[in-house]
Amino acid sequence: MIYFDEARKYFNKSNCLKRRYSAVIIDKNGVAVGAGVNQSMVACETCARENIPHNTGNYNECQSVHAEQFAMLQAGKDRLDGSTLYLVCDQDQNPKPCPICQRMMDWCGVRQEIEGSDG
């Protein structure tokens, strides 16, 4: 689907050492309202989460904002209700948001589209 390809265009902006994510949010009218990558404000030389299991919700050592959070911040709450998030990862097919991002998405009325699904 075209929106997943659009999300992949942002991979090179991620500075995460563990895995790169990028996301786009499309509103209920089909308009792109937000895009984001997992990114830290400072470039990390090593990953503090290297030996912590992925997607457990334990991000105390991580300085990054997640791609989903970045895209939602860019879109703004007024434009999120009824929107769809397209999330891609350089290491996972059909990645799932972490528990914190999922909670934010649920709160704002954002659903995730799964690549390869019928919609």
Structural class: alpha+beta
Number of strands: 4
Total helices: the number is 3
Level-2 CATH architecture: 3-Layer(aba) Sandwich
CATH class: Alpha Beta
Low-confidence stretches: none
Cα distance, first to last residue? 10 Å
Description:
The structure is a single chain. With 119 residues, this protein is an alpha+beta fold. It has one domain (2-113): 3-Layer(aba) Sandwich (Cytidine Deaminase, domain 2). It has helices at residues 2-8, 67-75, 99-108, and strands at 21-26, 32-37, 84-89, 111-113. The chain has a 4-stranded mixed beta sheet, with helices on both faces. The longest helix is centred in the C-terminal third of the chain and has 10 residues, at 99-108.
Question: Can you lay out the helices and strands and say which pair or pack?
Answer:
Blueprint: H1 2-8, E1 21-26, E2 32-37, H2 67-75, E3 84-89, H3 99-108, E4 111-113
Parallel strand pairs: 3-4
Antiparallel strand pairs: 1-2, 1-3
What attributes characterize this protein structure?
single chain, 119 residues, alpha+beta, Cytidine Deaminase, domain 2, four-stranded mixed β-sheet, 3 helices, 4 strands
Give a quick rundown of the structure:
By secondary structure, the chain is α+β, with helices and mostly antiparallel strands.
